[in-house]
Specification:
The complex is a heterodimer of chains A (341) and B (256). Chain A has 341 residues and is α/β, with parallel strands linked by helices. Chain A contains 11 helices and 16 strands. The longest helix of chain A is centred in the middle third of the chain and has 16 residues. Chain B is built from 12 helices and no strands. Chain B is globular, with a radius of gyration of 20 Å. The chains are: A alpha/beta (341), B mainly alpha (256).
């Protein structure tokens, strides 16, 4: 819990409740035949507040899954600390309040869907009829009401992902940690998982999810951070990022040959239409006047705002020096080292 | 805690019994025991002894085989297949995970030994009409032996891939059945240092011959109750020791 003390006023304002906190977390992991250590996390610090949906974004190989594993005690940080609720690290008491969906959930193929949920429920001390009812409700919630008696070996990837979400809710968690929950899902599956995440938030829980699918993060998250090569490069609310200025205007004229507007470079033409990219409001005004002067018609002017993807790409490129080579390097590093996202 | 341990044990049990390999082992065990009746035709007047001896050996061998083949995968497979992440992210301490795995495999082995024993005892009854004294004791001691072998397999499974874990476990099993030889050798060696080193193997590797009373059963010799008490206490102590070692190794392991 973070608090600001106002000694003069004689009271304390609690301005934020951190559910989850990384403090300068560093982690190196061994790779390759000689098990040479490579620093995967280089001092990650962030805090997630109660009740928000927090997007943990980054390209493949950035260290997202490694961070989540440090959070859950599957990996031990070399330096720094993680805090969950008021607990120092992933204590049993903290883990009792967490739901976790691993990246690409591999569950026991010898179990049936219902059995898997009952298995995980019993790990939380649940049992008997209440547990059976809970499992049936969760199967219903994730759209698998008739698949509980099928072996998981017969489940499709999307079904496994949905069952993974169901198991992460078996203990009515206060914090749900989802590692790439949308990966491998078709558009309908992604929509369903998005709805589930919104449902979790409505229930009052906090959601921390990693993803590299930016449209999903844009649609869901209150705040996002961007991890690149083991370092946090950006942390902001999605509204702050997307409410910034218009990047440029997309304009189209009708009935004017591009040669007649020689001061402007047309990006493309289609029949009677010509398309332009304009970079300021003044330029838009001048372009409108110019079109009218030559007897043409303004067909369309659309302001273009930056998407989360624009910020993502720009930040990654800034962090790595150059665009294409950086992305290529990131992918080849991930492939070569076998690093998870 | 008990619910969680039971849940892990139950899952381990289900995984093993739903695997075809267990049925194959079981079938081979039954065939091997049945083949002892053919062997017994070659002897005169000692058919019961052949069936008793051969059947007990077959049962112990196949129970050990199951313990090794399932045991070496117990922890490694969970890490390799990434099923362990969702389990250990829940309020499950690592020692509980190891303990649950051990009890799950032991449940498999007890059921397997019980089922093989039903067939085996039927065979013995058919051949002799009586059960040799200490037959039940011999079967219970085979449970004690597989408990030790399982705990050794779990230690190796907690840090090594299956092939290495299998080699180590089978090695310990093989040496464990001739560890008395290491004790005798240690006494006869001229070099005290070498003798101590060889003697150390005797003390570190389990003495699995402790759990073999086939000779006494076949020849109807007496086995003192205190022998059973000592053997079971030894098995319990060794098993607990190995499980503690497995927990120490696994507790500090990064699950990459």
């Amino acid at each position: 819990m973070r608090s600001v003390s106002h000694a003069d006023a004689g009271f304390t304002i609690i301005n934020a409740m951190s559910i989850l906190r990384f403090e300068d977390v560093e982690k190196s992991l061994p790779f390759g035949f000689w098990l040479r250590k490579k620093k995967v996390l280089k001092g990650v610090s962030l805090a997630v507040e109660a009740g928000e949906i927090y997007g943990f974004l980054g390209p493949n190989g950035a260290g997202k899954t490694t961070s989540i594993k440090c959070l859950l005690g599957l990996l031990r940080p070399d330096a720094g600390a993680v805090q969950l609720f008021d607990e120092p690290g992933p204590t049993l008491a903290a883990r009792r309040r967490i739901g976790y969906l691993p990246e690409q959930p591999y569950f026991y193929p010898h179990l049936k869907g219902r059995e898997l949920l009952e298995y995980f429920g019993r790990l939380f001390g649940q049992r008997g009829a209440p547990l059976r009812d809970k499992c049936a409700d969760l199967l219903e919630l994730v759209g698998l009401p008739n698949d509980g008696e099928k072996l998981l070996g017969q489940y499709s990837k999307g079904m496994l992902q949905r069952l993974g979400v169901a198991q992460s809710l078996i203990n009515d968690p206060d914090l749900v940690i989802l590692d790439e929950p949308m990966s491998g899902l078709d558009p309908i599956g992604r929509r369903e998982v998005k709805d589930l995440i919104m449902g979790v938030k409505r229930r009052g829980a906090t959601v921390f999810f990693s993803s590299h699918i930016l449209s999903d993060a844009e649609a869901l998250c209150d705040r996002v951070c961007l991890l690149v090569d083991g370092k946090l490069r950006l942390e902001a609310s999605v509204d702050d990022l997307l409410d910034e200025r218009v990047e440029y205007w997309h304009a189209a004229s009708e009935g004017v040959a591009p040669a007649a507007l020689s001061a402007y470079q047309a990006e493309a033409t289609q029949g009677d239409l010509s398309f332009y990219r304009l970079h300021s409001e003044d330029e838009v005004d001048r372009w409108v006047d110019a079109v009218r002067q030559v007897g043409g018609r303004v067909y369309r002017i659309t302001p273009q705002r930056a998407t989360l993807e624009d910020y993502f790409v720009r930040t990654v490129e800034d962090a790595r020096g150059s665009g294409d080579s950086a992305r290529g390097e990131a992918e080849s590093t991930a492939n070569r080292e076998g690093i998870g996202p | 805690m008990i619910d969680a341990a039971y849940s892990i044990a139950l899952n381990t049990f289900k995984e093993a019994v739903r695997d075809r390999i267990l049925a194959v082992f079981f079938l081979f065990a039954i065939l091997l025991m049945a083949s002892s009746t053919i062997l017994s035709w070659l002897t005169v007047g000692s058919e019961l002894k052949i069936v008793t001896d051969f059947g007990l050996a077959a049962e112990a061998f196949f129970a050990t085989l199951i313990a090794v083949f399932v045991g070496i995968n117990l922890v490694h497979k969970e890490v390799d297949k990434r099923t362990i992440y969702a389990v250990l992210a829940k309020p499950v301490p690592r020692w509980l995970f190891i303990t649950g795995k051990y009890f799950g495999l032991m449940a498999v082995l007890v059921v397997a030994i019980a089922l093989m024993s039903v067939f085996y005892l039927g065979l013995v009854w058919w051949k002799g009409g009586v059960f040799p004294a200490h037959l039940l004791g011999a079967l219970l001691l085979s449970v004690a032996e597989v408990s030790v072998v399982t705990s050794v397999a779990i230690v190796f499974s907690s840090f090594a891939p299956p092939i290495e874990a299998a080699i180590f476990t089978v090695g310990v099993w093989a040496i464990g059945h001739m560890s008395w030889g290491f004790a005798a050798l240690a006494e006869r060696l001229p070099s005290a240092a070498l003798g101590n080193a060889i003697g150390l193997i005797y003390y570190v590797v389990p003495d699995l011959e402790t759990f073999n009373i086939r000779g006494q059963v076949v020849h109807d010799l007496a086995v003192a109750p205190s022998y059973y008490v000592g053997a079971f206490a030894y098995a319990a102590a060794y098993t607990v020791g190995m499980l503690v070692l497995a927990v120490i190794i696994f507790r500090n392991r990064d699950l990459k």
